[in-house]
Automatic annotation (TrEMBL), chains A, B, C, D, E, F:
GO biological process, one term: Mo-molybdopterin cofactor biosynthetic process
Source organism (scientific name): Paroceanicella profunda
InterPro entries: MoaC, MoaC_bact/euk, MoaC_sf, MoCo_biosynth_MoaA/MoaC, Mopterin_CF_biosynth-C_dom
Protein name, as recorded: Cyclic pyranopterin monophosphate synthase
One Pfam family hit: MoaC
């Protein structure tokens, strides 16, 4: 078995998907940012009143998903038909979930994972002045559907 | 106490750093990608022979650090003077470390964290056909120096 | 009634267009840059001889329309099939009109409006050393066709 | 008199600023989006409850100011030290004001004007499903300071 | 006869391809970097041991092909379905070949030529400290197929 | 001797220039596009009347020089203080020359070479419908000054 992103001489390439079917595809990814309880409280507090960290991070995640092919060297450019990013405070941390859809020849896992990652980085950026010990963690694919390889569900 | 990225009406803004001193700054961030042992073995194997996943991810991380201000809404654009990204196989996972330097009015934590995140996403992308259960995890700042707030060391 | 770019919790998202039909779509937008008569005379003069402000602005508008999804947070990326930007001196000001076409699941109003806006900004940039009192004004949609909502014509 | 953005043969070029002094510079630009009173009421209403159009537009304006040199062909790339965009409902329309600072060899008028323009386009995008007759208007420079040409104040 | 990228008034525009058929298209471009024999020997040597110039250039070429429409003013944005870039040492120089595929309404010659050009520039960048006399040369289209104008083969 | 863009383990990195002096730097690069005499005649003809290929290519070259660090993986981002691109018809081909200046810690050779390359690609794009046998050739550095390594002049 070998990685699809290398040819038989070991050179990286963008895989030929031109013979793959155009189908409806969806991917959902999740991740989290852990932080001190007081930091989390500030986020919750700001949300209610003024300074909504999670709203800024949501937009950053959506915008980043559109740049995925510009960030990940061997990703195909794709016309995304839906991007949603949800951030919530749960289990003592900021939880992030991104859902991406396309109708195309290849999947959108990387777009969902990129949205989660950049939303998490944005939370970090906005809060770093009060808490440098935050961690971005547990970024993973939880659902993928459409395309030849079928449905994948992790949780 | 409140977040610096919001003004007193709660509106997000890019903080005014024009009165801050121009100083030499450095930041180091770390993170990891966890995966099945067989997947990790394929990466190690490919590295020795052909298809170097880690070399591709290293470049993606370096290039992404230059796009940080384009990804994180309230980050200042900065002229980076050094970016290095190291990937290694250790403790049963791929470990990533990024070091970024600038001479400027604001720090480079986000540039280092972005380099780690995109290097991790690139590892994921190249390996996802054989292992969908990978996780990107433990992304954190380990060192920051230069600027008024002084040295921060996490590990 | 509510805005389509927010979900029912008020979170911004990129609308799901995956169920919409792929149809031929067109949009036309217009706008203008007002300025002192002597400034306008310089543009006309330069055009005839050397230093064609309007030709530079036209290209800037065309190139910007391709970046629309990168500028407007909730815009879908689209494969544009035609972009034309016309600039002319009329009614004592620079008049700008952009026409954009696509075959896709969503309209191209924002691409046409972005082309007009950036062409106007480019006129401003090239002329600002001689006239700081210019104004960019009257940017609006004049035609939209294709898609479920049918034809819209403003003028 | 002639435009600085063309050489003596009429060829467009990015002006040589290497001999100009590095000074603190600021620019303020303003503009507006006009719309039907009911549309404006929806924006005000959404702001209070859910779906904050103006917060999304503010972020889009800030992010766009960092892309100015990528949009306007002959603009110099600049390290911005502050960007703030304010949106408010006044005089029956959405009013936008952007303030940009840098310490550099050239001014930031275009960055402020670009922030206003893209914030206005984003308002348009989010509201266009309910009101196609909106207009983006009165985009102009209101303040510029720093640099050899001195202070300019329009209002 | 006239150039298709200008309208009948001589204004540049992005050609309307909306009436063209969606077909499978491919393009192959080639080019080379000439340099001193000792420089070439260093590349070959580094490749075997450490510091693979050609692997870095290959990735840069692939990534650049995805930016073609952002670089070439009148190029249409396209969803590329395959990009491969091969670099080899032959005839006393570095030879580069790029192959690009799409299924769309317009060809991918520019994407293949851009991949070759940026791969060549990257070779230059990595080696320039030891050899400033390098030249990038012989960049040309060698194959184009798909679309109305039929097959073109140069070599 | 070894390449500066690799560390001692052979990993690519962006070289640390933080200890280098900030000095005024300039670079000049040249290149050409060869084509059939009739194609060249069309360019000359269009220039005089309508459809100025060289003016479009000039702008594309200027804009591309600002993207150099985004295209070449290990290039440092730089604040360019001047970019000029000249295109002329000479010796039976289109000749291109780019001049770039900065005040910074590293040189601008790559910015000048990128401007020439993208200007050449743009000429190719605009003319390719009438001549597929064009070649982009002889791209090289002709002058570099400023910085520790001193003046380099090739021609």
């Amino acid at each position: 078995m070998s990685f699809t992103h290398f040819d038989d001489k070991g050179a990286a390439h963008m895989v030929d998907v031109s013979a793959k079917e155009v189908t409806a595809r969806v991917a959902v990814a999740r991740g989290a940012v852990t932080m001190a309880p007081e930091t989390l409280a500030m986020i919750v507090d700001g949300r209610a009143k003024k300074g909504d960290v999670l709203a800024v991070a949501r937009l950053a995640g959506i915008m980043a998903s559109k740049k995925t092919h510009d960030l990940i060297p061997l990703c195909h450019p794709l016309a995304l038909s839906k991007v949603a990013v949800e951030l919530s405070v749960a289990q003592g941390r900021v939880e992030i979930e991104a859902t991406v859809k396309t109708t195309g020849q290849t999947g959108v896992e990387m777009e969902a994972l990129t949205a989660v990652s950049v939303a998490a980085l944005t939370v970090y950026d906005m809060v770093k002045a009060v808490d440098k010990g935050m961690q971005i963690t547990d970024i993973r694919l939880v659902l993928k559907d459409g395309g030849k390889s079928g449905r994948y569900e992790a949780e």
